[in-house]
Amino acid sequence: MPSVAVFCASSEDIDERYKVLAAEVGFALARRGWTLVSGGGSVSSMGAVARAARAGGAHTIGIIPRALVEMEVADHGADELVVTDDMRERKAEMDRRADAFLTLPGGIGTLEELLEIWVARSLRMHDKPIVVLDPWRDLHPLAELVSGLVEAGFVRDVAAAQLVWTSSVDEAMAAIEDGWAEAGSVVHSEPTANEWLEAEP
Question: Which of 68, 85, 91, 132 is least surrounded, with the fewest CB atoms within 10 Å of its CB?
Answer without folding.
Answer: 85
